[in-house]
């Protein structure tokens, strides 16, 4: 049995800026007709050498591609569906989606504050070396981060 290919996470990254005390998380998603990215930004305060407390966060608006490429076919539930016969009907949808993408991509990010009396979001680093960081967060989350360019990552093609 096949799966419905709605979205695929193409790239996941986190950038920590120790000078400005900010962290950026980003995910690049791709679907059968479009690619979009979602980014969050947060400010943090160092509480100890192993623990940081998040103070402010920003959810960025999705950044959609300017032009949506229509593939020759898509796979749905294990079956390949040929799209070329539908191109003349899909083109107006493609134009409308491109227009929506441009308007959404220019929207103001949603910003929220984590006030000190409610500040519950934290991150505790339990292992750190040159290539690898393992952290635990509130809500029982565990993060395993590998530094870009590390020999622990598989080679890119």
From TrEMBL:
- The record's principal subcellular location, in a coarse class, is plastid
Q: Which residues form a coiled coil?
A: none
Transit peptide as UniProt keyword: yes
Q: Which terms under GO biological process does the entry name?
A: photoprotection
Q: Does the keyword Zinc-finger apply?
A: no
What cellular component terms from Gene Ontology apply here? chloroplast thylakoid membrane
What the entry lists under InterPro entries is as follows: PAP, PAP/fibrillin_dom
Q: Which UniProt keywords apply?
A: Plastid, Transit peptide
Subcellular location, record wording: Plastid
What region holds the Plastid lipid-associated protein/fibrillin conserved domain?
3-145
Q: What is this protein called?
A: Plastid lipid-associated protein/fibrillin conserved domain-containing protein
């Amino acid at each position: 049995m096949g799966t419905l290919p709605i979205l695929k996470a193409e790239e996941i990254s986190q950038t920590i800026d120790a000078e400005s005390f900010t962290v950026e998380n980003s995910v690049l998603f791709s679907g059968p007709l479009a690619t979009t990215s979602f980014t969050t930004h947060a400010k943090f305060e160092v509480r100890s050498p192993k623990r940081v407390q998040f103070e402010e966060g920003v959810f960025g608006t999705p950044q959609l591609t300017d032009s949506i490429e229509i593939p020759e076919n898509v796979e749905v539930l294990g079956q390949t569906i040929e799209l070329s016969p539908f191109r003349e009907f899909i083109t107006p949808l493609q134009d409308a989606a491109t227009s929506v993408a441009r308007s959404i991509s220019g929207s103001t990010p949603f910003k929220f504050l984590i006030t000190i009396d409610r500040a519950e979001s934290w991150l505790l680093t339990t292992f750190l070396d040159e290539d690898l960081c393992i952290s635990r967060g509130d809500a029982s989350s565990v993060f395993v981060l590998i530094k870009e360019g590390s020999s622990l990552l598989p080679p890119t093609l």
